[in-house]
Amino acid sequence: MPTTVLVIAARDDTPTDRIVQILAERGVEVFRMDTADFPEHLEMSARIDQEHTWSGELRTSRRTAPLADVTAVYCRAPGAFVFPEEMSLPERRFAAAQARAGLGGVVNALAPLRWVSHPATMARAEYKPVQLAEARRAGLRISPTLITNRADSVRRFAAEIPGPIVCKPLANPVLIEGGELKSVYTRRLTEADLSDLTGIGTTAHLFQAWVDKAYEVRLTVVGDRQFATEVHAGSGAAYEDWRSDYGSLSYAATETPPQIADAVDRLLAGLGLRFAALDFVVSPAGEWTFLEANPCGQWDWIAHATGQPIAEAIADELQGAAA
Fold first, then answer.
1. Fewer Cβ neighbours under 10 Å: the N or C end of the chain?
2. pLDDT tens readout for residues 38-89
3. What dihedral do alpha carbons 86, 89, 95, 100 form, nearest 10°?
4. How many domains are there within the chain?
């Protein structure tokens, strides 16, 4: 029976290009699509009846994929649906809802597939409160955390914590303001910050106890395989949040302690993920503290820096191959 790996990702996503290349080199049929191509450049036809489950095809100007041939799906941050400009905003909103329910519904209704990872589980796993609860349940060490929009709660939390506290974003830390791309980074709060919490009531904020670190670890998990990389900060800004100064960072492949590896397996099972990029702080005493798990995290630059075969592992997972 023919098999096809369905790849749903932004058309300009370079890491996905690498996975598609590896699968093609292995002789695997790949149908790549971006939801931004639907409905103008991507067509779907699917039907079901009493005697037969969903059948039909996905089609672009260059390729066709019978739905019955799809055995695995790689889903990584595809674009939003794009509709003709002459449609009104209410019409586009309505069309987007229909497209999501139609195209997304059909793909979700196909026979049991290998998902890396399923959009519904990724959506739930994006919530940091869920990640922290699942990490604690799995046996990982977490930092005391407060989520609030109340200034008095922040001050009480800070008084109970023996050391500094940090503030970090709960969701995507990137925003566009005045046509400029800006990022919000983790920041240690000073006494001046705590005395003036003006604006905290405007939305939810996450506060955590600061954890002294020797270095951090980016742990990329693909199925049953774990790729751990030490991330060493080379500047004060990177020490506080390494995403703020990539140029100062150095990397070294490392091993995950067995008890951490087992807990991470339990965490991903609890989150229902087959892929995640996890961040840990490692203290000077060697204790690992879980920070977060990104179900759609970046991994390509880590693979390039360390030589770890992360793309090959994702291809293996989509093929159902043993590690």
1. N
2. 999 999 999 999 999 999 999 999 999 999 999 999 999 899 999 999 999 9
3. 130
4. 3
Measured N-to-C along each axis, helices 310-319 and 14-25 cross at an angle, to the nearest 10 degrees, of 60
Element spanning 282, H or E? strand 275-282
Integer CA distances (angstroms), 292 to 82, 95, 187, 224, in order: 32, 35, 16, 19
Q: Fill in the amino acid letter for 318.
A: L
Task: Report the distance separating Cα 221 and Cα 247, nearest Å.
Answer: 24
Helices (H), the chain: 14-25, 89-99, 105-109, 119-125, 128-138, 151-160, 191-195, 236-240, 258-271, 300-306, 310-319
Which of 157, 180, 209 corresponds to the end of one domain?
209
Query: 138 in a domain, yes or no?
Result: no
Q: Could you give phi then psi for residue 278, rounded to 5 degrees? A: -105, 145
Burial 83-103 (b: 16+ CB within 10 A, else e): beeeeeeeeeeebbeebeeeb
- The proportion of the chain whose per-residue pLDDT surpasses 90, expressed as a percent, equals 82
SS3 label, residue 201: helix
> At a CB cut-off of 8 Å and minimum separation 6, what does 99 contact?
35, 38, 39, 81
**Taking Cα atoms as reference points, which of 55, 43, 9, 90 lies closest to residue 300?**
9
Read off the pTM: 0.91
- Which residue range(s) make up the domain with 30? 4-116
Q: Do residues 13 and 40 make contact, with C-beta atoms less than 8 angstroms apart?
A: no
User: Which CATH number goes with the domain that contains 279?
Assistant: 3.30.470.20
pLDDT tens for 194-250 read 999 988 999 999 999 999 999 999 999 999 999 999 999 888 888 888 788 888 999
Beta bridge partner(s), residue 280? 217, 290
Helix, strand, or coil (residue 167): strand
